[in-house]
Amino acid sequence: MSVSGPSKRARLAPSIRLQREQVTELLIPVLAVVFALVLGAVLVVLAGKSPVDAYTALARGAFGSLGNFAETLINITPLVFTGLSVAFSFRCGLFNIGAEGQLIMGQIASAWAGFAITGLPPIIHMPLALLVGISAGALWGAVPGYLKARLGVHEVINTIMMNYIALYLSHYLVIGPLKAPGPIPMTPAIAPAARLWRFLPPTRLHLGVVLAVLAVWLVYYLLFKTTLGYEIRAVGQNANAARYGGINVPRNIVLAMAISGGLAGAAGAVQVLGLQHKFLDIFSFIGYGFDGIAVALLGRNHPLGVLVAACLFGTLARGAILMQSIARIPKEIIGIVQATIVLVVAADEIIRRFMRPRRRAARATSEAEGGVGHGE
Amino acid sequence: MLSGRKGESAGVVCPCNGGFDNQVPGAARPSGGAWHLSRRGYVALQPHDKTPLVEMRGITVTFPGVVANDDISIEVHPGEILALLGENGAGKTTLMNVLYGLYKPDKGEIYVRGKLAEIENPNDAIRLGIGMVHQHFMLIPPFTVAENIVLGTEPVRTAGVLDMAKAVRDVKELSARYGLAVDPTARIESISVGMQQRVEILKALYRGAEMLILDEPTAVLTPQEVEELAAIMRNLVGQGKSIIFITHKLKEVMAVSDRVITLRRGRVVGTVPTRETTPEDLARMMVGRDVVLSVEKRSREAEDVVLRVEDIHVRSARGLPAVRGVSFDVRAGEIVGIAGIEGNGQTELVEALTGLRKVVSGRISMEGRDVTNRQPRTLIEQGIAHIPEDRQHRGLILNFSIAENVILERYYKPPFARGLNLDSREVRAYARKLIAEFDVRTPDENVRVGSLSGGNQQKVIVARELSLEPRLLIASQPTRGLDVGAIEFVHRRLIAQRDRGKAILLVSLELDEIMSLADRILVLYEGRIVGDMKADEATEEEIGFLMAGGHRKPGGSGGERGERDECVGPEQESTAGAQHPAPA
Q: Is the ipTM of this complex over 0.90?
């Protein structure tokens, strides 16, 4: 390195810079988590408790027994799907805040397919019910996608509104046409053939966990190894260039929103077919869809990152419940920890500045000279 | 008449008596182009005052892996225009950012008026009388000109109430003194780019700048605005200010500067008085080898019609008529150049031809087949390639790798696509091939395109488009913002395409580029073709005149633009001048 001339060094620079960027990219979420946990510990101390006790209880709550561990995995599963859902839409430059509504549609549709259809063998009924749930979510995502692509209506507005439509539609269905006999607003139980296999009795761990991991791989493959993924990413990164290159931008927007919705729908379907075995009326949003936004953000919109982030959030949420009951530490502290993680990741520029004090100048040059920097 | 052109108003002449070049007697006229005003015929006030106004000594700046400035020393004297010449990435802007306090050097000192200066930030620089006009303007669009100029140092009345009347007065006074015509009450978003630049200059002057740094000031200007800027620069140094002006355009250096410092790879490779050098010498210093400034082109017979455009009408993004009945042919083996000032329908015409904008009426046919209002992909498959005018917003996906970018138009075809799968090995191999063939300077094909220099980005686009083996190439501003070496590269490739019997439509704002490459020249003015001539029969004066909306034949058709005097040269009808009255 020291012997090579300036030209050679200049040529080598981009690859070095790129690696550095990647390291930063990985470090930011990790640092955010560490910082948030430290902050959580401080809060525990302020609340007059021992942070060691708190985090021990949290760890035991999450991993302490086979049952706890299984419940943690169950908690993680829907977050993986909704995280993938939001991340997928982000990859196409779209902000799907509607995962919540798409999830509800997935729940109610798969519940319907579970109880209304009878007499099918599990090998057909279970995937069918799942597929119905996914399709309902996809449809719920495709509508705002279409409105965006054809009329230019912003998807953020539409997906938010579609959330409410989904919520109130589910109320109507569950106290009306799809209601099971009896006083409780819920659908009839789904047929045993439609249930996801619980493979680790006596725990409730079900096939949905495997499906979530499968979905991570599928989304990764779709995004990075197929022409479809190429188109969607191209549209997300630069719609002008995509159109110039002959890519049908509106079609990809609708498609991306449909796939994103389908993933959120899968989250709902898995919850119904694996755990609840019916659709129970919900009074307000459950939150998996909204948490999916945080998961996608923390996971940097990469499927593997989403998996890791979902594990973290699922574990924290699950552990917090036991932390509260064993160590008598309010679980809201974990809420603060989660919020801090999201905040730090969202405001990543702060960390970047700490890590690279010379960034300002470096950026100024590369911007102005269009040189070997990383400006855009 | 704008007060800023006081000195040149005598130079506005009728094309009938020999063009509109400058009338300064005895001044050597630089070879052609938009800088019609030749180099100053007079000497700067105090060209070699004993103490330089600003002196930078031994400035060294390193970025991770790159030495941006390597022991650079320069000095600027009062009343001098110093050109800082160099290719993209040579370190010009870095050096000026150091001077303006945007970056602290690893080594080196700055002296202002002979005294060691600590410039930690732009405020320090401003206090020392150094002002900078960035390539990308730092203005607030919804604010007025006066508001932008006084921003940060607003005149106030008692109790901190903003004294807008005084601000407007101050701006008017300043604008009259330095001949920078602006309308103080106009909003930034409603004025031309040229006037925005004048606002930036006024902003610096308002803060008491004695020395101005202009970073690539002509990159965004029309030829007319470039001339106005040249006049402004001369006026400023005439009043004792100094200017450092960053550029990679040789012609501009020759036309306005007193002295040239050439940088290459972060080092000073030469300091010469402008009058003692030639564009060829400068190009050699800048690039480090001999550069062919003029393009070699064999004459060649044009063959069959490839593209036929018949009376097309196209609307702009704002829904206004932008192309108003344009017809022309492009034949195999010829380059048809479209000359014109920016905003006369070039963008819309190219977009219509490439399927990116709807044609309202008229017909476009490619090799006899009607292709009016076809989708971009259909047109690409018909053999039309397109080098877009804006490489960052349309030509490339900056966050994609080079490999991902070169397949933008053919990712869905074998060998890259197998069913739904994308064969990344094939993609990368293809990218490596193009990188080698088109000499793209990059460590490998996985590098993000956004991290390449402008010239290399353009090479990626040229490589991608030419490798489509198009029968028609539409090149829109193919060398905008490129340095000499890269321009030469692009020009050679275009000529090679033509020599291989391809049809080429070249749209450029650089009249020189059109003149040297095109076989036939069309002049576009307000959405119509107002001139159609063979390149070897065309003169720069005539085209320049047509570009500005003048009539070709004295006493000719005249009709709709009859209100305009036949002898009005383009200088009087610049966009900026037309929009706003000059202050009295």
A: no
